[in-house]
Amino acid sequence: MEMNQYLDMFLEESKEHLQSINDHLLVLENKPSSMDEVNEIFRSAHTLKGMAATMGFEDMAKLTHEMENVLDQVKSGKMAIRPDIMDIIFQCVDILEGMVYSISENGDGRFDVSEAVNGLRRILKGETASTQAIGDSAQNEDPIAQEEIPFDEYEMTVLKQSIESGYSALWIKTTVRNDCVLKAARAYMVYNSLESVGEIIKCIPSVEELEEEKFDKSFDLVILTHKSEEELKKIVLNVSEIDSAEIRTIDLKSEAKENKKEEHEQSLQSPKASDQSSANGNLPVTGDSTNGQKKHTTSKTIRVDIERLDVLMNLFSELVIDRGRLDQLAKELLNGPLSETVEHMNRITGDLQNIILNMRMIPVEQVFNRFPRMVRDLSRELQKNLTLQIEGAETELDRTLIDEIGDPLVHLLRNSIDHGVESPEERKKAGKPEMGTILLKAFHSGNHVFIEVKDDGRGINRAKVLKKAIEKGIVSEQQSSSLTDKQVYDLLFSAGFSTAEKLSDISGRGVGLDVVKTKIEVLGGAVSVDSVPGKGTTFLIQLPLTLSIISSMLVDVGSEIFAVPLSSIIETAVFDKGQIMRAHQQDVIDFRGKVVPLVYLDRIFQISEEFTAHKEQISVLIIRKGDKMAGLVVDSFIGQQEIVLKSLGRYLGNVFAVSGATILGNGKVALIVDCNQLIK
Amino acid sequence: MSDEKKIIVFRLLDQEYGVELKYVKSIERLESVTKVPRTPKFVKGVINLRGIVTPIIDLKERLGLPQAELTEESRVIIVELDGLEAGFIVDSANDVLDIPLQSIEPAPNVFQGVRFEFLEGIAKLDQRLLVLLNFNKVLNLEEMDQLSKVEGL
């Protein structure tokens, strides 16, 4: 079908719009009076409707159409946002997400939307009947006297302070003439000339919308100024094609009433909604016009298909391989000019490598932005009162990692909400604020990216963890008393461990933190946990910046060359045969006072040549997986090299202890050893 | 229009076989193969095919035919099917033929020791007999998994 070529675009844009609706709904939940959010949601729903109808996804079009109807009522002021409206719109978004997912999986996007549609219609009916009358009667009177401009907390503060310091706050309703051709230009002129005499703190519709001519005939401005009403009126009417300007001084007392009502509404809502200051700052808010000064920020970017970047990366990888080869040749030939050129090329490709790797970096925001919604839903479900703070959402990660890191983070967050943060009553008893906080923070450090999930909950109960671990046979009774707190906390990551006494379906489904740990280690990272009883728990994930080019140690085993990632090597060492000891039918060595088991790579990989048996000394790579160590016995070390990680292809998808392959300077393929699978 | 198939003809031992041209990416000489441990016996390892790591399969071993030494004539046919890519070692590959569809007959149960499921048909052309292979089955992944479980310990 010819529609297919548009399908990708449709899916991509639908996802963007749904995300945007989600974001704005969350803001709206905390600021029920914010028209900007309603407008944004309306616009996204409208676009979705159009797209869905064009593509022939009728259920989707139907649902968005009903959503639009309800939003339209809210937008035109005939209905106020209430918790039940929020809930149903959230539900709709979930359904829409399900549809988009189904379509992307080659489904038809069909869904039974009747329940949601009915819910929306009920709201529409119940409300329009009672509010219509008020709307009608209001229309005949002076519009400005009846309408109330909704101010949020910030704007109220600004207003209050300015009035106290002698400014007057004026509300100006400007109407352009019917035959006005350049509405946007006129609006801009009004805005501009007013801005020169005072500070405009609010603009309805927003400045962006004014610029895009998204208003009918009139628009509202609130300005703080020393000028009088008459002076301002003159200024506005000076602009041509303006029909009228109505001006009223804002009396804070009458506004206060409005505000009180809002506060009341908020306190009725979900536990989460009552505090907004912290959470709001971190939610992506577009079209926010708290100060009416926001300008379009258009940075110069182009969109590039991610596949093209992959191709570029592959081509560059080949260049890296050739570079290795040239390097080798230059060293053999010992030709001055050749060596110089190769050296220069090395520097340039090094820079190039940095740039290309940087291009593949995506802000973690892409993963983070779905969490506020998840946390909201979960906290409601579990009747916990908490906010999610996000820091460092702009931190960048390789896109392969971005794709993989979502699930582990979901798990950690669920864990914190379920087990970490206490119920409001419990928190009160402990003398903590009722509202729990979960901090999700990403930051760069050295060659790594760290992601922290921190809650201010009850912390980890050492005794409880130990009891469980002994029950499950993870540690013995004697061992348990000598463990440090840190070691006890690390038990949480052991397989088959779950401390929640009653199983909830949020976390603790048997698959536990051990899955998180494994996943992150597969990505070449590490995860650790720290906790202060009564104060909270912090999970710290460490990830490499990129996965495509890694530093590794090349080693010889038999006639083959293998690459071992430097990230898993602690150090290299040579031992005499006599230093090998036997313990539990296993060869071990004493490495700096620690007993380290030996793993013979030739035996693991079934390389038959009997090399090691005759040698007097053995070469050992001390490798680690978390806290565990092992000695990887090889024939000899070749040296350190940057290698390009390549997959073995789908045909050889799952080879034991091999995580991939790379191409060496001589054009041969070398396998990359997966140390994680060698340590048990 | 398509009452003919373009077939690449290759030889295993003394018998000629065929694979449809549209599945063949290229034909290569056999160069250094890196062994991959703990894989089925017929997987000889991987090669560097212009920057792509490609698995190499000994087709004779895969089909259960007797072994023969590699010679100067030995080639690797790179086959791509459903996104799976692999190279097959054959004793020689030297011909491309247009085969009329009506000359293709269904395969007998077993043909010269090759199991039925690997056979797609037999093409009879003048003096020649071409065995067309079903590479979907030859590249069967599920069987791969089972085999690697058994052989890979």
UniProtKB/TrEMBL annotation, chain B:
This is Purine-binding chemotaxis protein CheW. It comes from the Bacteria. SMART domains: CheW. InterPro entries: CheW, CheW-like_dom_sf, CheW-lke_dom. Residues 4-144 form the CheW-like domain. Transmembrane segments: none annotated.
